[in-house]
Amino acid sequence: MSGEAEPSAPPRLTVSSESPVLLRSDLLAIADMVPAGSRVLDLGCGDGALLEYLVRSKQVTGRGVERSEEGMLACVRRGLSVRQGNLEEGLADYPDASFDSVILSQTLPFLNDPAMILSEMLRVGSRAIVSFPNWGFWRCRLEMLVAGRMPQVFDLAERWYEAPRWQAFTVADFCDFCHHLGFGILEEIYLSRSRRLKSPHYKNLRATTAVFALQRF
Amino acid sequence: MSTNGSVGLVQPQQLTFAEDEPFQLDSGASLGPMTVAYETYGQLNADRTNAILITHALSGSAHAAGYHQPDEAKTGWWDDCIGPGKAFDTNKFFIICSNVLGGCYGSTGPASPEPATGKPYGMRFPVVTIGDMVRAQVRLIDHLGIDSLLCVAGGSMGGMQALEWAAHYPHRLKAAIPIATTAHHSPMLIALSEVGRQAIYADPAWNNGDYYDAGLKPDAGLAVARMVGHITYLSEESMQQKFGRRLQDQVRYGYEFRSEFQVESYLKYKGHNFTRRFDANSYLYVTKAMDYFDLSAETGSVAAAFANSADLHYLVLSFTSDWLYPSYHSKELVSALTAAGADVTYLDVQSSWGHDAFLLEVETMTKLLSGFLERLVQSERVALPPGFPPAGSPKEQTKTEAAA
After folding, report:
1. Is residue B347 packed enough to be buried (19+ CB in 10 Å), middle (13-18) or exposed (0-12)?
2. CB contact under 8 A, B345 and A82
3. Which of A35, A148, B103, B298 is in Cβ range 3.0-4.6 Å of B99 for a Cys bridge?
4. Digit-coded pLDDT (tens) for B34-83
């Protein structure tokens, strides 16, 4: 399964048992990092599209955490096991190593304490899978340089002043951050819009979106 | 597929047991013989795996859906959620609801005749617990030949019973749906119960529970107890919407002590109505049972109470404006279940209806309940009952029309 057929804007996705699965390419990149049959916790799982895909196509034991009632209702309709919760309150209820993978998809820029969440993810799970939009992408740099305005990234619809507020960072920033926290990078996938980059050369310039699998050293 | 079908006319049923060997209660006392009143809706499948037990709240009964008389306007207490095409879809599931032990709707309670004397028990009826109520339900399920329930679901005190089932009989059910409830009755809840009980004790007609043969019942006391109860089932917002400061049948203040505000006459009406359908002694016993409810008492913590129940599936629901069983009670429960490694789905449903929301937020509840139950049907490979009509088939439509 590859992420070829893709709309250009951050798209709505449809997954059902009848139609072929159409999953957003960044979610597909995450799915590729998840071993089949493993235990997965998806933080901020939204409408549950990724989790449903993982449960159906990779036979994972899936659990989700979602804040919005709208997302919760969509997840329950998909037959997923999802808890309403706020990530900022941490994952204190979950025992150590109770999951193989803990996923944080496109949520990192919105967190007040990303270090706490990442540490918790790697306490609860043996690997953390994180995706985020890259403000180091060349167009973002150009926009900043030429227009002098905070660039709009591919995966993020909200402007800087809209709720929830986001924190801009780049692939290079994130690598430094992981190094600083003592997290090892197991796997990395870079996307330019919906297409995967074949080589990691100049990834911070060329990638709109990055997906990392992390573990503790 | 019909989404608002009725189960139609239903027949109340009774099971009597403990005729030879008395039924042991948590208090150490015993009862026998004992009767449990119940109703069932839908059909049991061949391998008896599609049964759902609905557990009722303080003032509820076994009559959860449909109607008893052909011309009756009033339906069972959870008719919005039980029926063909509804959340608890009687096309798919065999639904059971029984009246609790100590109640006054057909199950043995303080108004039942004491075998030794043939006169109503009154306060000689032993104090019962939620555990005793559930043990009586287990006898009913045994009688119906069901090894394992697909699920036990209920709100408020019904939720306590669902939790009691999960904690103490994990091998007899696959899933529990505790709604707007708690794993242990809080001091505030005990306090509110006690105000209700004191109102009954203070009524001279109560006569220490011996009023069944007298001309007078402690209606005044029971009505006050119910009024207090009703206040706790609403929220400030829902009262504001429902009544505001509006006056009943007058435009100006009368400067006198009769019920002038709409909210006053509503409560008076509800209180009075309640005395016509509920027994004051049952009110004492059932509220007492709730006060004793504390799943952490035996094990030291709520999480430990569910240590053997981690394989069950849970759907926990609370409502944002419920101040009687506030969301943090449910969140505590969800934390404990998560720590035990159980499969928990939890939502704090946005609602302004207060505690009553569990009976009123039908649309959201239907989405959640049917999604959760559909997953159970898949994961537990539940066969549909014989003659289950596929969605939209002419056969089913005929059946639904006949039922309606």
Report:
1. buried
2. yes
3. B103
4. 999 999 999 999 999 999 999 999 999 999 999 999 888 899 999 999 99
- Each residue's pLDDT tens digit, A85-135: 988 777 999 999 999 999 999 999 999 999 999 999 999 999 999 999 999
What's the pLDDT at A21? Answer: 61
B82 part of a folded domain: yes
Task: Compute the nearest-CA separation of B337 from chain A (Å).
Answer: 9
Mind telling me how many Å the CA of B124 is from chain A's nearest CA? 45
Scored b (16 or more CB within 10 A) or e, A38-70 reads bbbbbbbbbbbbbbbbbbbebebebbbbbbeee
- pLDDT tens, residue by residue, B310-329: 999 999 999 999 999 999 99
Q: Which residue of the set B59, B98, B156, B321 is catalytic?
A: B156
- The pTM for the full model equals 0.91
Which superfamily does A25-134+170-216 belong to? Answer: Vaccinia Virus protein VP39 (3.40.50.150)
What's the mean pLDDT in A144-149?
95
Q: What are the extents of the domains in chain A?
A: 25-134+170-216
Whether residue B5 lies inside any domain: the answer is no
What per-residue confidence (pLDDT) applies to A18? 45
Count the neighbouring beta carbons within 10 Å of the beta carbon of residue B188.
12
Mutation target vs A (from B312, B333, B375; most A CBs, 10 A cutoff):
B375
> A149 — phi, psi (to 5°)?
-120, 150
